[in-house]
Amino acid sequence: MTISRRDLCLTAAGVVARSFLIPPGFAQLTGARSVDVFVAKLTDDWARNNPQLATTQRYFTGEEQDMLERRISPQTRAEALKRIELARKGLNELRTLDRTRWDESHRLWAEVLDWQLAIVVDEEPYLDYTFPLEQMNGFNVNAVERFTVSRPVTRLRDAENYVAALSQVAPRMDESIAEARRLQDRGIIPPDFILQATIKQMRGFVTPAPDANPFVTALVEKMASAKDITPTKRAVLRAEAARTVEARIYPAWKRGITLLLEQLPKSTSEAGLWRLKGGAEAYAYFLKRHTTTNTSAEEIHQIGLRQVAAIEGQMDTLLKKIGRSEGTVNERIEKLRLDLRYPNPTSEASREQIMKDLNAIIVDAAKRSESLFDLRPKSPVIAQPFPTFREANAAANYNMPAQDGSRPGVVQYPRRIERMTKFGLRTLAYHEAIPGHHFQIALQVENRSLPRFMQLRAFGNIAANSEGWGLYAEKLAAESGWYDDDVEGMLGQLSNELWRARRLVVDTGLHAKKWTRQQSIDYGIEPSEVERYVVFPGQACSYMMGQLNLLDLREKAKRTLGPRFSLREYHNAVFRAGSVPSGVLEKLIDAYIARTTASA
């Protein structure tokens, strides 16, 4: 995984308007009102009622911003329905505007907004098909990540707001527990292996002394760079945070653990959405949301099978080239992974070294990328480890930088023993950082020619585009000769691509074809990944479906433009588009082809 559900979640609702800085040229009048006013009002309403978005992006200023930084959105069904109602009103109003008087750019932006709002509205029948508490995206995970990774602290006021917001964590956890009980009453309980993984993770979270908890240690680390916080004040804030963790947050987590333990005897090992009434319709919705297509589960399953066969053939050839010819591709790759493992992988020295190596790869990738890209972000990107309590379940991910420069892009890496290997480490850096997510997403944040809702991904991430680009970036590195002197590295790239192809097979297998957890593991997916697909249906399909779309569009441009095709210009066109659904991206690439043809 790369981008967390917190980025994907389309949270918030509200009715108060406030204008923001409009990008130059974003003012096409439509009768009595202008599209810039409409988009400004809708985006501000969304941000005002989405404290996470407002906090991470410093969306507002002054007292209003302070108020939002001290809040956490309610974790209730009622709040979700408010969000959907705001999206519905916005969508209805958007569809009344006369787009014929807008230029092509504005019509395409409106199409993106239309798609995103419609996806929010269409979610209403399927709100109960995800679990409030689980090991990957539950509140028990997202609450910690929003404080430790994406929340900026650059001054005393930020630190005070951080501590104030901590007081809301326990009430929001209790709301999540109540939602889990409500779903239980409807017969919707996570599979037993998901409950077990979540219980283990939550127990690990409450094990450290309060002042060693990630909520507290992250605050201490962030305050260290804030010059207006005195040592005395830092000690006071640290102590207050630790008291909140001990007196309120730990008891709330233990209440959550108690509920999950109560559910365990009532659960089964059946994994997919197929087991729930309306599960097939829910899965079709999730596939549409994450792939931005109407491709069916069966079609995606077959695409995956074809891709697996083709990639395994390439890998078999390379493995034989380096003298590894015995056993299946899976067996030979697993042996290579073990052979490239860091010495004493649980030692602190090795755990520190893998992060140093990952950051060094990112620096090297930045240099290599200069020949392939005209557009590169100004924001830096760094890699840092996940907190220990999350290592067992987490997948590497990317968190976008703040628009005001107060926070860099951050790649998080899980240092569990299976991941303490150099095998595939280069490819992971290319996907998560450069030229993958960081290039695309940071450039979008910095692109002042886009409307602000697109710059900040205010209405959510479009997974097929962002994850598709990450996988495209992996393949681009291989195509560009970055592995010419590194056969093991090339096998790492192909192994990652094979993993994404198998995801198509396993995700659809789990949710539409009644595959079991063990069947998925036997197909070549590690247990924590299988568990991720169970609680995050459809998202794993976004990677390869998005990549194939980018490759198809690139081939279309090459075929049409012939010698006039420029790889750098193709990348420019993709980056300037921002994060868009597949259909919109095709229109933008067609426009790029038309412009290039006309100029010639």
CA radius of gyration is 24 Å
Helix content: 55-70%
Q: Tell me, briefly, the overall form.
A: globular
User: What structural class should be given to the helix and strand makeup?
Assistant: mainly alpha
First-to-last CA distance: 42 Å
Number of strands: 5
How much of the residues is beta strand, in percent?
under 5%
Oligomer: single chain
Which strand order does the major sheet show?
Answer: 3-5-4
Low-confidence stretches: 1-33
Sheet with the most strands, sense and barrel status: 3 strands, mixed
Report on the architecture of this protein:
This protein has a domain at 132-269. The protein has 26 helices and 5 strands. The chain has helices spanning 5-8, 35-48, 51-56, 62-69, 77-94, 104-122, 139-148, 156-166, 169-185, 192-205, 214-223, 231-263, 279-291, 297-321, 329-339, 348-368, 425-432, 437-446, 452-455, 463-479, 487-512, 517-522, 527-535, 542-561, 567-577, 582-599; strands at 29-30, 33-34, 381-385, 397-399, 409-413. A 3-stranded mixed beta sheet has the order 3-5-4. Strand 1 (29-30) and strand 2 form a beta hairpin. The longest helix is centred in the middle third of the chain and has 33 residues, at 231-263.
Summarize the structure.
By secondary structure, the chain is mostly helical. The chain has helices at residues 5-8, 35-48, 51-56, 62-69, 77-94, 104-122, 139-148, 156-166, 169-185, 192-205, 214-223, 231-263, 279-291, 297-321, 329-339, 348-368, 425-432, 437-446, 452-455, 463-479, 487-512, 517-522, 527-535, 542-561, 567-577, 582-599, and strands at residues 29-30, 33-34, 381-385, 397-399, 409-413. The chain has a domain at 132-269.
